[in-house]
């Protein structure tokens, strides 16, 4: 075990920078925080670069998750450093540093996929990924313009689902074209005169389900490539659904 006691330590400074996308991309590293996410990573046999925590936090990791505290990649930190590294108001004083291992190319392993077209809210993206995981979908594809998958808020919202299903950032036009060439339908969720009610669609074994940007919906370029457009009827006076809520309804319809 290593020990660091100053927030001015170079390692601490470098890890604090990982809250920003620029430094995550430059280093190829990202940080998860909290016992639940660290536990999910350990259960998924992720090889972490560092596990940092206060004395109480590391002792809990040892007793609950069989972490070997004698390992050189275990770092004992104090409360001041934990506060400095934390991206939350109430830190649990434990952090894991992982390598970004996202595939560069869509694997085209067909099944059920959610395709996110320029989603901007990290909470929505994380919640949709978590819902897709719960519903047994095979994966989620994020357009390059969508929020960063390794944003701390996105990581927290996923609640460990990032370790359970396939996640990739890729051009949606290429993904949709590949799915359709394999005779797999791709449905775009959008309010459009040509859209059909969700209830008119039967669950299928394989599909792509496109969810659009919170403010602007599915882009015209992506929508034109899709097999069909669908919508969820609104019975009350609300103008629209939250993107994550709408995605959840549709995901479970097709689960």
Question: How would you characterize the overall build of this protein?
Answer:
The protein is α/β, with parallel strands linked by helices. The chain folds into two domains: 2-99, Ribosomal protein L30/S12 (60s Ribosomal Protein L30, Chain: A, 2-Layer Sandwich); 112-254, SPOUT methyltransferase, trefoil knot domain (Alpha/beta knot), CATH 3.40.1280. The protein is built from ten helices and twelve strands. The protein has helices spanning 10-16, 21-27, 35-43, 55-65, 79-85, 122-134, 152-158, 172-181, 220-225, 243-254, and strands at 2-3, 29-33, 50-53, 74-76, 94-99, 112-117, 139-142, 166-169, 186-189, 196-197, 207-212, 228-231. Helix 6 runs parallel beside helix 7 and helix 6 runs parallel beside helix 10. The N and C termini lie far apart (45 Å).
How many domains, in number, for the residues?
2
- The CATH first-level class of the largest domain comes to Alpha Beta
What is the ordering of alpha helices and beta strands?
A: EHHEHEHEHEEHEHEHEEEHEH
Can you tell me the CATH superfamily of the largest domain?
SPOUT methyltransferase, trefoil knot domain
Residue share in helix: 25-40%
pLDDT averaged over residues: 94
Given helix and strand content, the structural type is alpha/beta
Strand content: 15-25%
Tell me the overall shape. elongated
Summarize this, please?
The protein is an alpha/beta fold.
List the helices and strands and how they pair.
Blueprint: E1 2-3, H1 10-16, H2 21-27, E2 29-33, H3 35-43, E3 50-53, H4 55-65, E4 74-76, H5 79-85, E5 94-99, E6 112-117, H6 122-134, E7 139-142, H7 152-158, E8 166-169, H8 172-181, E9 186-189, E10 196-197, E11 207-212, H9 220-225, E12 228-231, H10 243-254
Parallel strand pairs: 1-4, 3-4, 6-7, 6-11, 7-8, 9-11, 9-12, 10-12
Antiparallel strand pairs: 2-5, 3-5
């Amino acid at each position: 075990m290593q020990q660091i006691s100053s927030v001015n330590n170079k390692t601490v400074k470098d890890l604090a920078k990982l809250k920003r996308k620029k430094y995550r991309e430059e280093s190829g590293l990202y940080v998860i925080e909290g016992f639940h996410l660290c536990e999910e990573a350990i259960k998924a046999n992720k090889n972490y670069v560092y596990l940092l925590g206060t004395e109480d936090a590391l002792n809990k990791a040892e007793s609950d998750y069989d972490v070997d505290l004698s390992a050189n990649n275990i770092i004992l930190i104090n409360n001041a450093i934990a506060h400095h590294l934390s991206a939350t108001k109430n830190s649990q004083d434990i952090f894991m540093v992982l390598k970004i291992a996202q595939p560069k190319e869509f694997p085209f392993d067909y099944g059920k996929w959610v395709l996110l077209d320029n989603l901007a809210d990290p909470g929505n993206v994380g919640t949709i990924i978590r819902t897709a995981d719960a519903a047994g979908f095979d994966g989620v594809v994020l357009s390059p313009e969508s929020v960063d998958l390794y944003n701390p808020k996105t990581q927290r919202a996923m609640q460990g689902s990032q370790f359970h299903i396939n996640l990739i950032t890729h051009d949606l036009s290429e993904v949709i074209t590949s799915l359709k060439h394999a005779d797999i339908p791709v449905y775009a969720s959008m309010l459009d005169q040509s859209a059909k009610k969700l209830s008119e669609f039967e669950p299928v074994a394989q599909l792509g389900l496109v969810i659009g940007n919170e403010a602007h919906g599915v882009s015209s370029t992506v929508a034109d490539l899709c097999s069909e457009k669908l919508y969820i009827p609104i019975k009350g006076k609300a103008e629209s659904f939250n993107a994550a809520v709408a995605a959840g309804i549709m995901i479970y319809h097709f689960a």
